[in-house]
Amino acid sequence: xxxxxxxxxxxxxxxxxxxxxxxxxxxxxxxxxxxxxxxxxxxxxxxxxxxxxxxxxxxxxxxxxxxxxxxxxxxxxxxxxxxxxxxxxxxxxxxxxxxxxxxxxxxxxxxxxxxxxxxxxxxxxxxxxxxxxxxxxxxxxxxxxxxxxxxxxxxxxxxxxxxxxxxxxxxxxxxxxxxxxxxxxxxxxxxxxxxxxxxxxxxxxxxxxxxxxxxxxxxxxxxxxxxxxxxxxxxxxxxxxxxxxxxxxxxxxxxxxxxxxxxxxxxxxxxxxxxxxxxxxxxxxxxxxxxxxxxxxxxxxxxxxxxxxxxxxxxxxxxxxxxxxxxxxxxxxxxxxxxxxxxxxxxxxxxxxxx
Length: 355
Hints:
By secondary structure, the protein is α/β, with parallel strands linked by helices. The chain has a single domain (3-269, 303-344), classed as P-loop containing nucleotide triphosphate hydrolases (Rossmann fold, 3-Layer(aba) Sandwich), CATH 3.40.50. The protein contains 14 helices and 8 strands. Strands 3-4-2-5-1-6-7-8 form an 8-stranded mixed sheet, with helices on both faces. Helix 11 (242-251) links the parallel strand 6 (226-233) and strand 7 (255-264). Helix 4 crosses helix 10. The longest helix has 32 residues, at 190-221. The protein starts with a strand and ends in an 11-residue tail after the last helix. 35% of the residues are buried. The mean pLDDT is 80.
């Protein structure tokens, strides 16, 4: 069974790029790695040197220095739902389910179904035998608990008992309840109710398998083989309730591997030009002011680096000494495999973390 590294956090922190760089770091260490992302943007495929990312793992051509291998894929929610239905239902049931309007809404628009399919796909990759490490770039949620609860919410909607009273008036008890359900049926219309009834009747064939699979997925998410990393932005690593994320992980008994603090300003390196030589380089009247602004850049970078270090140290201390890996800022963004390779040098397992 493959080891799982789950990258959690809100959008805008560079989580997808960091997840890809983490996958490169694992491949450098000799592992067979797959990165599962939910980001539909072209930039990640371009950075990995791929024509496209889709619902199947695609190999990435790494430099010869890598002793392992890397594949990447992008979750297709609808495609994954359809594959699950086809693999678990009879051919006739699958065909009828795929054509059902309620199923189409469930598989494309229902809140939580994206997360549900992410862990479904994760389960398949972990048990495929093709990979040693699976890196999961989770959907951007406001709180990590949303990711954990989404499969439970979707399972609840697939539980026939919850809508049994809606679909079967004879099961409704109490005059007030019967009146309320009568209004619902009248407003929804007969066609909608027929689609719902048909969906749950068809899905009854799959419900036991879904319950068993869900239990296996929940066991995987809480397994010691699954470790969670929280991605933060260096300018505000304490925002977005990262410590709340961490508390939730610890309360659930899940393995927290550390913080990945992205876009960190490193201390400037190298010699800076002599000011006199710079001033003599041009007679333009505006040149001295430009030189002054240029010469101020190293100290500005140093100050930003000190500020980042202070904030990261505070985060580490508040988290009880949890490790934090510092991912440097890339001025133009990680737009190539070479850039991801450079970022991977700062990520586990090769780079020591702040504690």
